[in-house]
Design goal:
Elements: H1 2-20, H2 28-50, H3 57-72
């Protein structure tokens, strides 16, 4: 089951790279940013695939701002 999802995620990211990389021919900074952000997205997708109980960014913000909400109320 997870192997199919893994292959699907990989295929989607490969398609993204194949379609966008030629458009960034002479733009070195944009290529670097695209590669880094795509790699981070791919790793996060795999992390969520294998460990779905990992807390998301909204839970992190709730944990950080919870003391402030009690002060403001």
């Amino acid at each position: 089951m997870k192997l199919g999802s893994l292959l699907g995620i990989t295929v989607i990211f490969v398609i993204m790279i194949v379609m966008e990389w030629p458009r960034l021919r002479h733009l070195r900074r944009e290529r670097t940013a695209f590669a880094v952000l795509t790699a981070i997205g791919y790793l996060l997708a795999l992390l969520l695939l294998y460990y779905p109980e990992v807390p998301g960014p909204t839970q992190m913000f709730e944990m950080f701002y919870k003391p402030f909400t009690s002060i403001l109320e």
